[in-house]
Write a structure and sequence with these properties.
Blueprint lengths: L3 E4 L6 E7 L4 E6 L4 E5 L6 E5 L4 E6 L5 E5 L2 E5 L6 E5 L8 E8 L5 E7 L9 E5 L2 E4 L8 E6 L5 E6 L4 E6 L10 E5 H4 L4 E7 L5 E6 L3 E5 L5 E6 L5 E7 L5 E6 L6 H6 L6 E5 L15
Antiparallel strand pairs: 1-24, 2-3, 3-4, 4-5, 6-7, 7-8, 8-9, 10-11, 11-12, 12-13, 14-15, 15-16, 16-17, 18-19, 19-20, 20-21, 22-23, 23-24
């Protein structure tokens, strides 16, 4: 598997890629530039929309809009007009926090994390949003959360503590209840200089994770063993999404954030969107069902 550049997005902090099966396109965000991006790999068409605040993620939602996690809470984003409609703040979140990453289970429940925007305070935690309610769900007291990611069949959920360089796993019950999180993978063991970023599961239940300062994405088996890495020509690799008609095209977001002038000169494609083909497909994401 070899990654190739597919879009010169130039993101400061590219994040949150997700495949939109209905529109046959990829959505992703640039957190620091307050933008939501849309990319059609079949035609190469690219659109970029400005939003009111830092935006960590977007997810296709029931009703036709996308659900977006902005710094001030949850919004609906209209894919035609490019406008956001505010829904609700996230209860108990300090002003210095922002939302960072998210996923949706097969029932439409949305799981997402928050983090300290200054990247120093252990104020991040994980939440579940579903049918008008938001509740804390998963580990807390984390500086930089990433994920969650949900295994096929909604049986397991993975949580990333980026600064601790660890990914944890917990059971996920049919009612959305989450069990006690246990260590799944110590990224420092396999990639001493890298930090785990956004995770996602493929159809075999393996976990793919972006590697910040790790020059690629890594794949872990369901028992936490490293089984592969795809190299990229940029250091700060954030997250992967499976797309295309059969979900065998992997799209990867990257970042320019944290790179000095010499590093940027050596990595001219930092912040761009990359892609490669995989043998094991992803799992089609369900539509988020949060608010009507």
């Amino acid at each position: 598997m070899a990654a190739e550049p597919v879009l010169a997005a130039g993101c400061t902090l590219g994040e949150g890629p997700v495949w939109d099966a209905a529109r046959e396109c990829l959505w992703f965000t640039d957190i620091k530039q307050h933008r939501i991006h849309n990319f059609d790999p079949a035609t190469g068409k690219h659109e970029s929309f400005a939003v009111p605040a830092q935006v960590g993620w977007v997810l296709p939602a029931k009703g036709g809009d996308l659900l977006a996690g902005l710094q001030d809470g949850l919004h609906f984003f209209n894919a035609v007009t490019g406008r956001c409609r505010y829904i609700t703040p996230v209860p108990g979140e300090p002003l210095g926090n922002r939302l960072n990453d998210a996923c949706v289970d097969s029932r439409g429940r949305v799981y997402f994390g928050s983090m300290d925007d200054g990247e120093t305070a252990d104020s991040g935690q994980f939440f579940r949003a579903y049918q008008g309610e938001i509740a804390q769900a998963g580990p807390a007291a984390i500086c930089i959360t990433n994920g969650p990611a949900i295994a096929p069949g909604d049986t397991r959920i993975y949580f990333t503590d980026t600064l601790a360089k660890t990914i944890h796993v917990a059971s996920l019950e049919p009612d959305g209840t989450i069990g006690e999180a246990q260590l799944f993978a110590d990224i420092a063991r396999d990639f001493p200089d890298a930090y785990p970023d956004g995770p996602i599961c493929d159809a075999e239940g393996c976990v793919w994770t972006g590697l910040w300062n790790g020059w690629g994405v890594a794949r872990y088996s369901p028992d936490g063993a490293l089984i592969g890495k795809v190299e990229l020509p940029v250091a700060n690799v954030t997250k992967l999404a499976f797309g295309g008609p059969d979900l065998t095209r992997a799209f990867v977001t990257t970042a320019r954030k944290g790179l000095d002038a010499s590093a940027l000169a050596a990595q001219p494609m930092a912040g761009d969107l990359f892609a490669f083909d995989v043998d094991v497909p992803g799992v089609a994401p369900a539509l988020a069902e949060v608010w009507g």
